[in-house]
Amino acid sequence: MKSIKHALLAAAVGAAAALPLTVLGQAAAAGSSAAKPAADEMTEAEVRKVDKDNKKITLKHGAIRNLDMPPMTMVFGVSDAALLDKVKEGDKVRFSATGEGGKYTVTELQPAK
Asked: Does the domain at residues 39-111 carry the CATH identifier 2.40.50.320?
């Protein structure tokens, strides 16, 4: 009886250990599409502050799916300072962002439709 329990336990541990590898393999297979969302997957937000001197924007945003981030208000850097010329405080926008090394960067920014 003990050997059956040990065998079942070993099988369960083995299956649990393999699961994260399967998930990681699927993410790698998704390729760059997971890193950069399509235009229809852009996140809705409201501009709270535009800091052109420091090339930053504060957004109150919805969930950012490609970053697995819940809705919140936060400061982002921008990939191109010219993006900040398109917006002002209070504007409703749609944006795409990337996150690397704890730094989050807006890569696309457009008025909400």
From this structure: yes
pLDDT, tens digit, 9 for 90 and up, residues 4-49: 665 655 555 555 555 454 444 444 444 444 444 454 589 999 999 9
Query: Any idea what DSSP says for residue 64?
Result: B
Residue 39 CB neighbours (<10 A): 9
Q: What 3-state class would DSSP assign to 112?
A: coil
Q: Which helix (H) or strand (E) holds 19?
A: helix 2-30
Is the distance from CB of 94 to CB of 44 less than 8 angstroms?
yes
Residue ranges of E strands in 1-113: 43-51, 56-61, 72-78, 92-100, 103-111
Residue 13 CA neighbour count, 13 Å, CB half: 6
Residue 87 CA to residue 11 CA, distance in Å, equals 56
pTM exceeds 0.85 for this model: no
The Cα 94–Cα 86 span in angstroms is 12
- Would you give the DSSP letter of residue 102? T
